Amino acid sequence: MKKKSIFMLLLTFIFAVSFVLTGCGGNNKSSGNGNDKKVTIKFSMWDTLDENASFIKAFEEKYPNINIELVNIPEDYSQKINSMIIGGTAPDVILTWEVDLPRFAESGAIEPLDNYIDKTDAFKMDDFIPAVDNLNNTSDKVYGLPWCYATELLYYNKDMFDAAGVEYPNENWTWSDFEEAAKKLTIKEGDKTVQWGTDAISFPGIWYSMAGAAGDDVYDENGKLALGDGLKKALEFQNKLTNIDKVSPEPSSGGEVADLFAAGKAAMTRQGNWYIASYKDSEFNWDIAPLPKEERSYASLHTGFFTINNKSKHKEEAWKFIEFMMSDEGQTLISQTFSNPSARTSVAEKGDYKVQGEHGPTNWNAFDISADSGYFGYVMLNPTVTNDLVTQFNSVLLGGKTIDEVINKEVPNAQKQLEDE
Questions:
Q1: What is the rounded CA–CA span in Å between residue 136 and residue 348?
Q2: DSSP label at residue 169
């Protein structure tokens, strides 16, 4: 009986200790050190990737207790994310569009990041490009961190410039320089243009960058369109190129060739930097430069912001994911994957975003200049409205609208749409 009592007492003690230890472990939140219970967090983005993407795998290797479930939304991203937030099904980490960031913050849908940022050693807030600082200064708190950035550039065919004896574009180029070069680079055979000085504007952001270069704020601190004299100058200038100088095709022209620059039929084009990857295998020599300036240099910047869903049950793990993505390692992997520079200047300087083709580009300094003169402008507004407004800009070039009609009627109509949202 004595041996049995001792045995039962020992068994009871072991059970009690085991219960206490298990209970303590079960109540702890995951600290992200690899020793805790595995947690799955959802991360949404608009590109179609899988969980084997380099930056996701690197994070999971560093934090084996955190699993990333990738939520791909290749179409209608903003609309679907908004619906998910309303329905309570939004992911833990949302790569948020610029236009959605202020609204999500104001509604309380996303978590302020200041307390996390204050404790991190992974990055410093004074390392970001000016546009990020400008955006953060419009709010008393930081709600999102940029995963990278894209800008807009001037692309030019060096072979065509050489043949015409025209000097290459540089950071000091003005609209006047651009126009004069386009005139010299346009070649006609009878009534047919066989080489255009510049391609038509095909990307909406170029219109807003032109308005900004001519002095408009484009987007003001109250979330409104700020278009006026700058837009008028932009419309007049592009109309001159198209219908008076005839060095740029009409927006709807081009026949079966959608990209005249890529086809070797236009000496210049103004596009987003993501076209570098498309042009890198071109057989002609080409390069990049900042967009020409008028009253000032201006480039529309594009990005997405890492944000934390305010209803997430795993905010600490969500922050660890964002913190890693904003670190040197995470930013390098993102730059290599998407060929976009980091919005952290110290990381961008390493050049991991560069996609070097056999024939171009070489003037990577154009990115630095564009970053310094770049703004999150029209991208802060509903893209449906801004894209529809571009249709009105193009109608001026096609003779369907006057410049005054666009300025005095279509722009106010667009603003009313934004206010009615």
A1: 20
A2: P
What is the SS3 assignment for 88?
coil
The rounded distance, in Å, linking the Cα atoms of 252 and 26 is: 64
Distance CA 148, CA 306 (A): 10
Cα-based angle 381, 386, 390 (whole degrees, multiple of 5)? 160
Report DSSP letters for 202-249, one per residue: -SHHHHHHHHHHTT--EE-TTS-EE-SHHHHHHHHHHHIIIIIS--S-
Q: What is the predicted pLDDT for the residue at 393?
A: 97
Q: What is the pTM of this model?
A: 0.89
Place of tokens 């975003």: 353
Q: Where are the alpha helices (DSSP H) in 256-327?
A: 275-279, 315-326
Average of pLDDT values for 203-210?
Answer: 97
Q: Helix-strand-coil percent breakdown of the chain, rounded to 5?
A: 45, 15, 40
- Examine residue 361 and say whether the peptide bond preceding it is cis (omega within 30 degrees of 0): yes
- Alpha-carbon distance of 66 to 30, in angstroms, equals 9
Q: What is the pLDDT of residue 36?
A: 59
Structure tokens at 397: 């070039």
8: pLDDT strictly greater than 50:
no
Instruction: Enumerate residues 6+ apart whose C-beta is below 8 A from 383.
Output: 78, 99
- 216 contacts 230 by C-beta, under 8 angstroms: yes
| Averaged pLDDT score across all residues of the chain | 90
266, 328 Cβ separation under 8 angstroms:
no
